Amino acid sequence: xxxxxxxxxxxxxxxxxxxxxxxxxxxxxxxxxxxxxxxxxxxxxxxxxxxxxxxxxxxxxxxxxxxxxxxxxxxxxxxxxxxxxxxxxxxxxxxxxxxxxxxxxxxxxxxxxxxx
Length: 116
Fold this sequence. Notes:
Blueprint: E1 3-7, E2 10-12, E3 18-25, E4 32-39, E5 46-53, E6 58-60, E7 68-73, E8 78-83, E9 92-100, E10 103-106, E11 110-114
Parallel strand pairs: 2-11
Antiparallel strand pairs: 1-3, 3-8, 4-5, 4-9, 5-6, 7-8, 9-10, 9-11
């Protein structure tokens, strides 16, 4: 069974940083895409960043380009989201996803709160 386990969320002051991680397990495909989304209450999920395997091609939403960086550890199949210069409007539940040939798997989400 494919599973995604996220960690790294929490409360942080504006201007500071957080690094989210998402560990994937239970699959052996070498071609996949891992992404980070976020969701505010009452809103749709917003795609923030994606990284492909193989190749590590990265794409970012304009709202986070230059502040957030997505990366992946190929050995542990863990994807990271380094978030810098955080703003109060970055407050949301953050989800990682794994797109496989047969479908998409979602993590459980981790809360990020940016507040002084």
